[in-house]
Amino acid sequence: MFSERMGYIVWVSDLKAARTLEKYGTVHYMSRKMHYVVMYMNADRAEEMVRNIGRLPFVKKIERSYRNEIKTEYTQGVPDKTRFYSL
């Protein structure tokens, strides 16, 4: 139903020109202070899009986001000590 999405962080030199990145994927966030754009695109065309984005004159560097690969299920390996400190 939903296609696999990949996240990329694109470091730019000009934020006004970075608005054109919307035609390559979904722009999630633009940092005005640190000059980067967080964007998502379909995984099946991601390599082609990254090559095209890298050719743009205002793009400094492109990094892949590993957010979807980070484990978000946590286990409690340490026993809960709050019962010892309750009144």
From TrEMBL:
<keyword id="KW-0963">Cytoplasm</keyword>
<dbReference type="Pfam" id="PF09902">
    <property type="entry name" value="DUF2129"/>
</dbReference>
<dbReference type="InterPro" id="IPR016979">
    <property type="entry name" value="DUF2129"/>
</dbReference>
<protein>
    <submittedName>
        <fullName>UPF0298 protein</fullName>
    </submittedName>
</protein>
